[in-house]
Specification:
alpha/beta; 2 domains; 10 helices; 9 strands
Length: 279
């Protein structure tokens, strides 16, 4: 069977689960053939042998059953970086680039050299910052050793040596040395929230999504315990749900942070809040 015929058939099969069935079909076929997507586009009349068709069919079935494309291929781009992902890590999302941008603005306008990334997952945020500011020293933590294995592999593939990875439940394994900036994309979905029923979310690590009955348990822990790990004048920047900005800013104020501010993501939703601890 030729590529064009395969893609037409696959696109129809993915119509109910994919926003862009044609693009996903190309991505899966390219992955099955170990070819770039540009090759798939350039050679629509190329014949695909039976073995490759079977591999493609297996991938297609997984995606059709609702498994996210990133888990099917084990790959996801974030901040233009090609990252490995697994079911031990959340799939990096475009909205989280808002947190990277916020951190970069703080780094550019303040004397920040030591950064702590809590709950690093695949390492997406830490590695994006390391790429943009190579002289930063970043400590990236996660409670999951499986997630850290993915993050370390990503750092190695990207030839990034300025990020240190540490297994830790938020601050539990840290030595107390002060940092200038704490960043985190923690769990912030409330238990029982309707968003958890969205297609694909059941494949992602639930402990990285759900945070108590109001979605704020981990944000409380991160913000409330941050002063012990911050240098005077240090910052905390966190991602949160679109409707949680007021609650997060209140958490900052309760912990004596000054002037909490909120940043909107590319869709116009309140997505990141940050504040400075007094010097």
């Amino acid at each position: 069977m030729v590529i064009e015929t395969l893609l037409n058939k696959a696109s129809a099969e993915l119509a109910d689960v994919a926003e862009n069935p044609r693009l996903e079909a190309r991505t899966l076929l390219a992955f099955a053939l170990n070819k770039p997507v540009t090759w798939i586009i350039a050679w629509p009349d190329a014949s695909i042998d039976a073995t490759a068709q079977e591999q493609f069919s297996t991938l297609l079935t997984r995606r059709r059953q609702g498994e996210p494309l990133a888990y099917v291929t084990g790959q996801k781009e974030f901040w233009s970086l090609p990252l490995n992902v697994s079911t031990a890590t959340l799939i990096p999302r475009a909205d989280t680039e808002c947190l990277v941008e916020t951190a970069l603005q703080l780094i550019q306008s303040h004397p920040i050299t030591e950064v702590l990334d809590l709950g690093t997952g695949s390492g997406a945020i830490a590695l994006a910052l390391a790429t943009e500011v190579p002289d930063l020293h970043i400590t990236a933590t996660d409670m999951s050793e499986a997630a850290l294995a993915v993050a370390r592999k990503n750092a190695s593939r990207l030839n990034i040596s300025t990020v240190s990875f540490l297994q830790s439940d938020w601050y539990s394994a840290l030595d107390g040395a002060g940092v200038d900036l704490i960043i985190s994309n923690p769990p912030y979905i409330a238990k029982g929230d309707a968003h958890l029923d969205e297609i694909g979310l059941q494949y992602e690590p639930q402990q990285a999504l759900i945070s108590g009955t109001d979605g704020l348990d981990d944000l409380r822990a991160i913000i409330g315990n941050a002063p012990a790990s911050l240098r005077p004048g240090g910052f905390v920047a966190v991602e949160h749900g679109f409707d949680q900005a007021d609650a997060v800013c209140e958490l900052f104020q309760r912990s004596a942070f000054a002037h909490p501010q909120t940043v909107r993501d590319y869709s116009g939703n309140a997505r990141v809040s940050f504040a400075q601890y007094p010097a």
